[in-house]
Amino acid sequence: METIIKTLLYSDLGADINNIFVLIFRLLLMLELFRVHGMKKFRVENGQREHVPNPLHLPEKLNALVATFSDTVVPFLVALGLGTRLVLLPTIGVTAIGYFVVHRKDNIEVRDVPYMYTLALLLLWAVGPGTYSMDTYLLHTFFKF
Known about the structure:
Strand order of the largest sheet: 1-2
Oligomer: single chain
Largest sheet: 2 strands, antiparallel
Helix content: 55-70%
Shape: elongated
């Protein structure tokens, strides 16, 4: 169990400058995700909320819940560095499905956005949140690592 927790929470990129850059990258990426995609979930245009594509034919409420969670809650958790690797998974799924399924026949300019988000989120998932995160704080506080 301790190994699983350490794998999920531990992320030391060596030099402080690397951890600072990951912090900045994390904050800017999540700010943009929330500002551009999360805010659409609250906006009503022409009496309608944003239509969320459902290419996997999930139940509509589940599909909307995953998309809304990925664009509104996940950015705040990742910005804090709280459960980063775990909470990134649904957002990576949403952006990858956007690229590979929803926009597969669109031109490259349209496909570019989900592609870049997927790559950036995968990078953040792989390196973790860095030492300037709640994950690191919790690991050191509760697990004495």
